[in-house]
Amino acid sequence: MAAAHEHLADSADEAPIPFRQAVEALRAARLRPEIEIDPTPAPKRLAPFAYALEAAVVERASAPGGEDRDLADGRLVLLHNPAGDDTWQGTFRVVTLARAELEPEMGADPLLPEVSWSWLTGALDARGVRYGAPSGTVTRAGSYYFGGLAAREPATQIEIRASWTPAEGPGGVPDLAAHLSAWCDLLCQVAGLPPATPDMAPRGGVVSLPQRRGAQPR
């Protein structure tokens, strides 16, 4: 986990205790087994303190020697400004990206942007997390293939960019494990997975992403 600590701040000792506790909550979150997640370099200019994760929803190969396939991927960034931010309406901000390739019939749905945004808010509400000042965009892009690629079916990609302010709990620390779980629920939903069931044992802690295999072209 040494690499993960490098992204905590320029000096981990300088990071405020609420931020360090929030990061530890992210690391300890128990997630669905289809989720593979790993720390990644955080942006340096958005806030005094930042921590970032990238994640993928992975479909395991059904046969020995087969390749796993990424069904969706994304990025979550935790920002912290101890002095507060008027735009955030708080001292923490969660900034996320989720993207996936959709089935043709779903990609053609005119209500897709509104439905996709409701997936995000629904995931947060289902986890019972408290948050404010949500904002974001839903982008739908179509790909059509010609020439040597003409045999490929048209494809639709969706990209959901969102941010929100997590409500602070005891000691000024939000329940970031619940926010991360809700975001992973969104990733699984855009990947087309069914809702989690009680027999799906979550996996605890941040693990390393393997070399990306079978990723859909973006």
Automatic annotation (TrEMBL):
Name listed for the protein in its UniProt record: DUF3000 domain-containing protein
Residues covered by region (Disordered): 199-218
Domain of life of the native organism: Bacteria
InterPro entries: DUF3000
